[in-house]
Design goal:
about 325 residues; 2 domains; 6-stranded parallel β-sheet; 6-stranded mixed β-sheet; globular; signal
């Protein structure tokens, strides 16, 4: 004889299992939109490698579209991906956040992922690298290494947190250091970036931080030609000049892409704005040049270790 409480227990089991399955996501196909060509040796190349990492590690089909930066191109690309059965789309720039907010309710079967935007609601996530921290430690090293006591930042836009981080890190180590900052107002305007470089060089800057993924390689090449020094940006750029690149501020985009895709497949990818730092293993400094004295390298590495442990920067420990 089956008692009523046994029946209720069986029903409860089915309900729990059913709810768990409803929350599971199946990663079917992934797509990426890149604002510029994939061969920039910077941010767009990182995105390309990130989507390939998903393909390799998770064994799914991926779709890639580059040079997508207008509203019409973004809308058309999303519709095309939808027709292909893509159910997670990475927009590899902050410019996609606004358009993804407009599209997410129309394509509820797609999870939209962008970078450095401000999003809210269901099926949308914005990923944020804590750029301030990586800039801070690069600034510390630069102030350790400068001989003219004059550093230069050639950045793309004022909203980049690594810019203020660099200034603060440099100033903490050496209050007398001067940091000149110019904004290109573009990720890719090489001519304007080189114009700022020449001005800074003329004023005595000897270490530069070209923080723009589309122009940094050209600037570094000129820095190398002039026998000066630079901090690499986004990737580990020691290969651009072992005696030119003191270190690099590295964003491990490939690892973050893989982590996000795995979280989506497991049904645990969070909506809204998510932030990532040194402790998450997706931000680091790159290889140090052999011209950086070992004691300076160890001092920076120790400062990073303390930041990971405590969440505090060196100047906050001294307060």
């Amino acid at each position: 004889m089956i008692r009523w409480w046994n029946i209720m227990a069986i029903i409860l089991v089915f309900l729990v299992v059913g709810c768990g399955n409803d929350q599971e996501e199946t990663l079917e196909k992934a797509g990426i939109l890149l604002p510029h060509p994939i061969d920039d040796q910077g941010w767009n190349s990182k995105g390309y490698q990130g989507i390939l990492s998903i393909q390799s590690k998770l064994g799914i089909q991926v779709y890639i579209r580059e040079d997508i930066h207008t509203k019409e191109a973004i809308y058309e690309s999303v519709e095309s991906y939808h027709n292909e059965g893509v159910n997670i789309i990475f927009g590899h720039s902050s410019l996609y956040s606004e358009y993804f907010m407009e599209l997410k309710d129309k394509y509820k079967n797609i999870h939209f992922v962008s970078f450095n935007g401000n999003v809210e609601g269901e099926n949308i996530t914005s990923l944020h690298f804590e750029g301030y921290a990586m800039g801070y430690f690069a600034g510390m090293l630069s102030s350790e290494m400068t001989k003219t006591n004059h550093l230069g930042i050639i950045a793309a836009f004022p909203f980049q947190p690594e810019v203020q981080g660099f200034v603060d890190g440099a100033s903490f180590h050496s209050p007398d250091v001067e940091v000149t900052v110019d904004f290109v107002e573009s990720w890719v305007d090489t001519n304007k970036a080189l114009y700022y470089y020449e001005n800074m060089k003329s004023s005595g800057v000897d270490i530069f931080y070209p923080a723009g993924d589309g122009f940094h390689v050209s600037v570094v090449e000129q820095i190398k030609s002039d026998g000066l020094y630079a901090i690499g940006y986004v990737g580990d750029h020691i290969d651009l000049g072992e005696y030119t690149i003191l270190t690099s501020t590295v964003q491990h985009v490939e690892k973050l892409y893989e982590n996000v895709a795995t979280a989506f497949e497991q049904g645990v990818l969070q909506n809204g704005n998510e932030y990532y730092d040194f402790a998450d293993g997706v931000i680091s400094l790159g290889e140090f040049s052999s011209i950086v004295p070992i004691e300076k390298k160890e001092r920076i590495e120790h400062a990073i270790e303390m930041y990971v442990k405590t969440g505090k920067f060196p100047h906050e420990h001294s307060e």
